[in-house]
Amino acid sequence: MDELKSKETVLQEMNQKHDSNVVDIHNVKSEMDKTQVKVDQLLNEYKQKQIEREKSEQVMLQTKTKLEETNSKVDEIQQQLTTITSEYEKFIIKKKEKEQQLKETNT
Q1: Positive/negative CA dihedral, 53, 57, 62, 67
Q2: Looking at the predicted structure, is the pLDDT value of residue 1 above 80?
Q3: Mean pLDDT score of the chain
Q4: Is this structure's pTM higher than 0.85?
Q5: How far apart are CA 97 and CA 107, in angstroms?
Q6: Radius of gyration of the chain from Cα atoms?
Q7: ∠ CA(85), CA(90), CA(93), 5° rounding?
Q8: What is the pLDDT of residues 21-72, one digit of tens each?
Q9: Alpha carbons 100 and 106: distance in angstroms, whole number
Q10: What per-residue string of b and e applies to 42-80 under the rule 16 or more CB within 10 Å gives b?
Q11: % of the chain at pLDDT higher than 90
Q12: pLDDT of amino acid 25
């Protein structure tokens, strides 16, 4: 009889331990699920930031290209202004020469 009671006690302890292990497994699974949700959120945030960075890089590249185009146009305009200034200076010199010739002719 005592042996039977002892076996029952051992069986009950084993069942309790099993139940405790099942609860522990459930808790670990629950924590794993929470961790997976956090990992998924972080991964989504990373992907979003990656997309934003790529967009920003594209905008920067477009801006750089436009700046280079603008600089090229500015260089072209500066060259035109230099040419116009040079032509104007030549014109002024010729005008003064003609005025001087006219003065000499009239006197």
Answers
A1: positive
A2: no
A3: 94
A4: no
A5: 15
A6: 45
A7: 125
A8: 999 999 999 999 999 999 999 999 999 999 999 999 999 999 999 999 999 9
A9: 10
A10: eeeeeeeeeeeeeeeeeeeeeeeeeeeeeeeeeeeeeee
A11: 83
A12: 97
**Which of 56, 59, 78 is CA-nearest to residue 67?**
59
The size of the chain, in residues, is 107
In three-state secondary structure terms, 98 is: helix
Tell me the residue type at 62. Answer: Q
Please name the amino acid found at residue 9.
T
Q: How far is CA 58 from the centre of its chain?
A: 8
Which residue in the block uniquely carries the two structure tokens 């039977």? 4
Q: At residue 68, what is the residue type?
A: E
